[in-house]
Specification:
The protein has about 260 residues and is an alpha+beta fold. The protein is built from 6 helices and 13 strands. Strand 2 and strand 3 form a beta hairpin. The termini are far apart.
Length: about 260
């Protein structure tokens, strides 16, 4: 299935006169995010973006695989984001890098994948699990024709089947960076309950070799347990019963003076 190409969005920024840590901190105090634009043509340029606007754009997803028209004080340049640094506590952007994209250029970019027709997969209907090996596929693509996503059809897939990159049609001019093999994107794996059946069977087999239950006959030649209880209703021999009931007689002290 042909993939939908991206629509070019615009993002606004303003130029920063100075670079360095001090300038970046001053920019953040103004509720803006410092950034850099690099790549041919031209020298690197320091910029600042509105923090709230940038957070909204990043929150839409696919930020690092989207081409933008960057408007810096009215001058537009086509760019692609290459790195975003986030505050480790607030999870807000604190710095962003953009790379200039020349007309007709081919760039390396990660394109997300998505799957359709899960309900038509016999393997998934029988309790299988879709194991996604690659959530994104790295490709070389024309800067103005980066696909929004790659789509894979799960119809008819049984447990144990794999989905390879060849299962989707790539747009013209888009090629995976892995070119020497038809790599796997996802598999339909068995259900966890089936995977746990083997350990359960092994545990049952171990239990069969455990000690016999109470009351079972001892193995041939085995000595009876010393503290085994008499069976209910069994009679104790009379002589032994009397001996057990009567306490042992105390030993008499030897007569004094008797030799």
């Amino acid at each position: 299935m042909a993939q939908k190409a991206q629509q070019i969005s615009e993002i606004k920024a303003s130029a920063r006169a100075r670079s360095g840590t001090g300038s970046a901190r001053a920019t953040r105090r103004e509720k803006r995010v410092p950034g850099v634009v690099y790549g041919a043509p031209g020298a690197p340029q320091t910029i600042a973006l509105d923090a709230n606007d940038l957070s909204i754009i990043i929150g839409r997803g696919k930020f690092l695989s989207t081409v933008f028209d960057l408007d810096v004080d009215g001058s537009k340049t086509r760019v692609i984001p290459r790195e975003v640094q986030l505050d480790p506590i607030k999870d807000m952007p604190i710095h962003v890098d953009f790379q200039r994209v020349a007309p007709g250029a081919r760039i390396r970019v990660n394109v997300p994948v998505r799957f359709v027709n899960e309900a038509l997969s016999p393997g998934l209907k029988r309790g299988g699990v879709l194991n996604i090996v690659r959530h994104e596929v790295e490709v070389m693509a024309p800067a103005d024709k980066i696909p929004d996503f790659f789509e894979f059809n799960l119809e008819g897939l049984e447990i144990g089947r794999s989905i390879h990159i060849s299962a989707t049609k790539l747009p013209e001019g888009v090629t995976p960076t892995i070119i020497n093999r038809d790599f796997t994107v996802a598999t339909v794996a068995g259900h966890k309950i089936e995977e746990e059946a083997a350990p359960a069977t092994a545990a049952a087999a171990t239990a069969e070799g455990a000690a016999p239950a109470e009351g079972a006959a001892p193995a041939e030649g085995a000595a009876p347990a010393a503290d085994a209880k008499a069976a209910p209703g069994a009679k104790t021999p009379a002589g032994k019963e009397a001996a057990a009931a009567k306490p042992a007689a105390a030993a008499k002290p030897a007569d004094k003076g008797k030799k």
